[in-house]
Amino acid sequence: MDATPTFCTIIPPHVLDKLATSEDRALSDLARATLERDSFERTHRRLTTVIGAASIAGAVASDQPRRTIYDAKHGTTLPGRKVRGEGDKEGKDLTAVRAYKALGATFELYLKAFKRHSIDDQGLPLNATVHFSQRYNNAFWNGEQMVFGDGDGDIFLDFTLPVDVIGHELTHGVTQYTANLTYFGQPGALNESMSDVFGSLVKQYALQQSADQADWLIGAGLLGPTIQGDALRSMKAPGTAYDDPKLGKDPQPATMDHYVSTGRDNGGVHINSGIPNHAFYLVAEALGGYAWEQAGQIWYDVLTGGQISPQASFADFARLTVSAAQTRYGDGEAHQAVLKAWSQVGVPTSTGNGADLPRQTGQPEGASGRQG
Questions:
Q1: I want to staple 348 with a disulfide (CB 3.0 to 4.6 A). Which of 20, 249, 325, 353 is the partner?
Q2: Catalytic residue status for 36
Q3: pLDDT, tens digit, 9 for 90 and up, residues 62-113
Q4: Is 333 designated active site?
Q5: What is the pTM of this model?
Q6: Where are the beta strands (DSSP E) in the chain?
Q7: Thinking of the domain 8-177, which architecture would CATH place it in?
Q8: Which is the catalytic residue, given 270, 278, 335, 365?
Q9: d(Cα 268, Cα 14) in Å, to the nearest integer?
Q10: What is the C-alpha separation between 144 and 38, in angstroms, rounded?
Q11: Among the options 14, 131, 144, 169, which is catalytic?
Q12: CATH number belonging to domain 185-344
């Protein structure tokens, strides 16, 4: 399948939009600067998509990662100055150290749990740039590499702090090379959910946590000291990650009863992803043990199996997970757990039962909303 490069950020646009309307001029100016930088990078990514992404020579499917860390030195030219290559001695810059380790943790999960060799399964080198721009409140995958801001120290801290943020963004690359889910509406929310699912699994694998030990939070440790909240999102309890005067309240729904129909945020991709996120959590909780061993295998089979359409709805994806669970594990516990989880979040798993569900299928990149 051809991969369509995308520009995907960890901070949802609705959060930055809220900050941009703050009466605190310093806060609003900072948010607007981040939005402007995101817009510039997004436009650049679209141009690259049209022209064609640069090929990366020398990629070999290996059991060892090929990591390179660059330092933008608070500028915006990518990739910046190389500060560490694969196997090089650890330097004193803790941000670069964390980025290097997190790239390795993501590579290891995909290799050990899913037998996948890097993002494209062909040994794609893992490149990351740290110290991007000035007080930049975001991190992103631009279709070719990871980029991390340092945060402003008040609202958001250093974006290399949570390993699941890095796993999340790199998984956008995996989706880019596999299902290639269109970044709008329900397929866009599935795209975001895939990144949350495997980002969380990266953290759980690195910590060797079972499903009941995991916090199921995305971006824990990223929020600054003045913010009332635990993380960017909660897969266990969507809508509860934060409730803060500056950021607003976490808007994610956990079920289709509260599905958000909107043209903003590319049709609510960062909001409605809470629904498939919660379904995955329910499956993992029901099965117990390490989430990557059964629940993760089912989700990975669908992501990489070639049957999912780039325009897939939640119901399409749910039916495929039911089929994948049955194919891999038979009619037993895993199959029943998947059926029950989708029922609990209100997504049908049998053909013909979803006529009354909102269905925002994908549109071409840039057709509506802002990609993030």
A1: 353
A2: no
A3: 899 999 999 999 999 999 999 999 999 999 999 999 999 999 999 999 999 9
A4: no
A5: 0.89
A6: 8-9, 67-71, 81-85, 126-130, 139-141, 146-148, 217-218, 233-234, 243-244, 248-249
A7: Roll (3.10)
A8: 270
A9: 9
A10: 16
A11: 169
A12: 1.10.390.10
